[in-house]
Amino acid sequence: MENEPIRTEVDGITFLSTGHYYDGINQWVAHKLKEGDTDAFDYAARQMSKLLPKNAVLVPIPGRHGTPDQTLKLCRDIASYTHLPILDALRGNDRESQYEVKYKGRSLTEEQLGYRRVANIPTGRTPYLIDNVVDTGTTAKAAVKALGGGVVLSYAMSDTLLTHEQQVSNGFHR
Questions:
Q1: Residue 161 forms part of a structural domain
Q2: Which of 15, 75, 151, 158 could form a disulfide with 135 if both were Cys (CB 3.0 to 4.6 A apart)?
Q3: What tens digit of pLDDT does each residue of 78-125 get?
Q4: Contact indicator for 154, 132 with CB cutoff of 8 Å
Q5: Are 74 and 28 a contacting pair, CB within 8 Å?
Q6: Does residue 1 lie within any of the structural domains?
């Protein structure tokens, strides 16, 4: 069974994903991406490529060391299918990983991420910020803000962001 793509808008930002983190093999693929598994990168890239328009430019979201590593590889693999340009346009602070921080029951702030734009988006292109997984959306939102706009595309999306978005639309957000 193939994933159903997810499209949602949270805080004025469009989030796209190939499917839910806990559906099918998505969690397994997401962990394999963290491990650098080339087959997982190829699989994720093929799935993500289906969601991109012809005017997109791929922007990798920086990781824990302030530069994109896994997301840049993912962009390269996506580009091998789509022939879209890649723009390494963001830098951030060297810090703990979001995964490690969440494991400790905390979350990184926008200031701790320290994202900043280091390149301009080409005219006529829509930036698609690429990430492996979106959970709360904190990292992606900070990256979009630093870039000055764009759409977030992740391989998988947890229910955390979707639950938050639904609570806001139902008036439950405080």
A1: yes
A2: 158
A3: 999 999 999 999 999 998 887 787 778 888 888 889 999 999 999 999
A4: yes
A5: no
A6: no
